[in-house]
Amino acid sequence: MKIVAMLLVLGILVSCSGNSETLKFDIDGDQEITILNLFDVTTEDEALNYGDGFSSVIQVDDVTVLFDTPYKDYVMDNGDSRMMQNIAILEYQVEAVDIVYISHRHSKPGLVPFLEMNSDVELYLTSDIDMTRTNERFALDYYHDEPFKEIGNHIYTSGPMLGEKDGKEVIEQFMLIETESGIIIVVG
Question: For 108-160, what is each residue's pLDDT tens digit?
Fold first, then answer.
């Protein structure tokens, strides 16, 4: 039964790709998960920016997580961030975000434009991301390579996983959401 529920949830998550609508679903009767895609490879909404990368806001009960920022975030010459433009178009309140979760190094470039709007967050990222300059601007509580740990109500970090891409070491992490129906794995 748990596997069937998990496949159903994953099917819902996959179907929201490219969709700017807020996706809400109830798991177990008393736990609600809300997902809003902020940036993706495609979009059905012509008003939104899109391109390489992925970013979403995931709310589990009373904890809100910004999961990843787009690769190079398509930061334009004038400093505008396409993800932040999407946030404005969608009229999302960035102050609602409690945790920023960066799954791998190339998902960090869009972080600074977000922190300019809300730096009152806990930040989870991999140890190959240098935060020296960013932390000079923003006094952040950030955590590198936390091992499996609960970071929010039923939300966990996987801890670091080593891999290789183009002959270089890559550190990745994923986020887990615990439900009575099974575990949802969120990857970037």
Answer: 777 888 999 999 999 999 888 888 888 888 888 888 888 889 999 889 999 89
Quote the Cα angle for 109-144-120, to 5°.
65
pTM, 2 dp: 0.83
Write out the two tokens for 117.
């709007």
Given the DSSP bridges, would you call strands 155-157 and 149-152 parallel, antiparallel or unpaired? antiparallel
Place of tokens 């929201």: 16
Distance CA 105, CA 78 (A): 23
78: Cα separation from own chain's centroid: 25
DSSP element (H, E) containing 22:
none
117-140 burial by CB neighbour count: b if 16+ within 10 A, else e?
A: ebeebbbbbbebbebeebeeebeb
Contacts of 75 (CB under 8 A, 6+ apart): 81, 82, 109, 110, 113
